[in-house]
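Sequence dictates fold. Below is an illustrative record:

_____
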Amino acid sequence: MVQNTLEKMKKMHMGAMSQTYGEDIKNGQINQYTIDEYLARIVDEEWLSRQNKKIRNLKKAANFRTHAHPLNVDYTLHRELDKGLMERLMSLEFMKQKDNIIFTGPTGTGKSYLAQSIGVKACEMLHKVIYYPLSTFTDMLQAMQLQGNYQKWINRLKQADVLIIDDFGLTGMDDRTRKALMEIIDFRYDQSSIIIISQIPVKDWHGLIGENTIADAIMDRITHNSHRIALNGESVRKVRKNVAVHG
C-alpha cells in the first residue's frame, strides 16, 4: 500500500512529498507525528520544493550576468554606497511605488552587482525580472525582428515586474534601439520599475540617446520618481586583487 501511494504521488508530480514520505517510512519516523502534523509536514515539503523551483526558473529566465546576491553585498568598500538606501531598495518597496533606480559610477565600482542583487531578491519574492546589457538588447532586437518574434519579445519586456538595462550609453544607440526603448519605457511608466546602470552621468544621457524628442521622453520617464545611486572610488576588482596579493 505504501509503494502504491508513493507511485501515485510521483505520477501527480509530488516529488518532494513522495521523497519525504518514503524516507520517513524507511526511518520509522512517521509515528512521531499525529495525522494532522504529518499531513502538514509533507505538504510543507512539497510547497517549499515548488517555491524553490519557481525561484530557480525565475533567476534562469532573468539572464543575470553574475552570481549576485543581497547577502553578499560588501558595504565595507569605500565607494560612497548608502547602506540604508540600499537596504530599503532590497526590501522592494520601490516596486510597490513603481519607482525606478539609476546606478552610475566608474567601471568596476559594483553597479551591475548591486542592481542584479536587487533583481535576485525580486526573483526570490517570485517577481519576474529581465536583465539585458544594452548591446545585448540591441542584438536581440535585431534577431527578433528577423525571426518575426519582435512583438512577442517586446511584450515580455513590457510585462516584466522589473526590467534591468546595463551599460546604458556605453555603445551607440541606433534608431531601432531608441524607438524600442521608448515603446517599452513609455508602457512601463508608472506601471512597473526599471533599473538603469551606466558609467555615464545622468546629465550626459540626453546626447547619448539622440533625437531630441525621443531623448526628452525617455529621460523624463526614467528619471521621474527614480532613486539615484552614484558610486565613486577605486575598482572593486582592483581593490580585491590588491588585498589578495598583499594579504
In short: Strands lie at 100-104, 129-133, 162-166, 193-198, 226-230. Residues 99 and 225 are 5 Å apart (CA to CA). The longest strand covers residues 193-198.
